[in-house]
Amino acid sequence: MKIVIAPDSFKESMSALEAANAIERGFKKVFPEAAYIKVPMADGGEGTVQSLVDATEGTIMTTVVTGPLGTPVKAFYGLSGDKQTAVIEMAAASGLHLVPIAERNPLLTTTKGTGELILAALNQGVKHIIIGIGGSATNDGGAGMAQALGAQLLTREGKEIGFGGGALRDLAEIDPSLIDARLKDISIHVACDVNNQLTGKEGASAVFGPQKGATEEVIMELDQNLAHYASLLEDQLGIKIDNIPGAGAAGGLGGGLFAFLGAELKRGVDIVMDTVQLEKQLENASLVITGEGRIDVQTIYGKTPIGVAKRAKKSSIPVIGIAGSLGQGCEVVYEHGIDALFSITPSPVLLADALAYAEVYTEQVSENIAKTMKIAERLLG
Known about the structure:
This protein has helices spanning 16-28, 48-56, 91-94, 112-122, 143-148, 204-208, 216-237, 249-261, 268-275, 278-281, 304-313, 351-356, 358-380; strands at 2-5, 35-38, 59-66, 72-79, 85-89, 128-132, 152-154, 173-175, 187-191, 264-266, 287-295, 319-326, 340-343. The protein is an alpha/beta fold. The protein has two domains: 2-41 and 277-380, Glycerate kinase, domain 1 (Rossmann fold); 48-268, Glycerate kinase, domain 2 (Alpha-Beta Complex). The chain has a six-stranded mixed β-sheet with strand order 3-4-5-6-9-10, sandwiched between helices. Strands 2-1-11-12-13 form a five-stranded parallel β-sheet. A hairpin with a 5-residue loop joins β3 (59-66) and β4 (72-79). α1 (16-28) packs across α13 (358-380). It is elongated, with a radius of gyration of 22 Å. It starts with a strand and ends with a helix.
């Protein structure tokens, strides 16, 4: 029996690899002779770097970059085991968690640090870059990122514009001629799980601005500035980004990555599954086990367990989902490829205990699932 274990991380308690190890330990107590294939997964959000590093036996790299407020921060990115792929979480350099609540102001915050992480990856000689763009503190359309990579964003006086979404109002000329030439020889995939356009009622500023500290007045200013930015990109470079689904992700960074780097915006879990060659790992599998911290009605919208289940169902492989908790509407996942669901918590517990003992609980429930399978074997045998 070949069992593929492909969970996402369980937020605040287990990395994807730690969850996979716990599931394997539980199953091995009942099926010690089975072949176990562990494939740490992610959907492009927090934990994607760690999951892909674990899945490819790669390395976490650290470097100091420009933080969202323009001050230095220590950030990280992942390098795959074959050193051909870099994995970046933009939040590591330009994330909301790096800005104290009292200082959150998307008129000022910059994506320059994200561009510097891309430069660091280029210096490793990679041929492929994956960028997860969730959790941003920014609303600058990726302007800071572009500047870090060599693009010139100039005022009417020929000076570089400053940091933040507020500075875009001063933009008069966009010159991409000095962007790092190495970018032409690599592929860039952006893990983007929202379809928001750059501007308007469903755009970057209106939808995501408030959580970054924007008032209604600031939202209007940011939206106007992004519209001005998009207009210049179209007029001067012939690149239209305003109507691209996902262009508004991370305060317009999705649009900026498309415009300046030719990046492809894709659903995060699809990028990860392709990178780890999940379908190859699924060949001749008897069972797939996936999971994440919480499975509920939102899980069907691009989350790891459903992505894994859909790939497994191409080969008619049964899929078990394991979660820290099962939320309202979780049964909808049965319509999307998952055959059975289990919560790891043995009884009502305090959240602190659930997080602290997550690996123990996961091992226990996995052993119980395996024992149930063993009983079924006898009944059907």
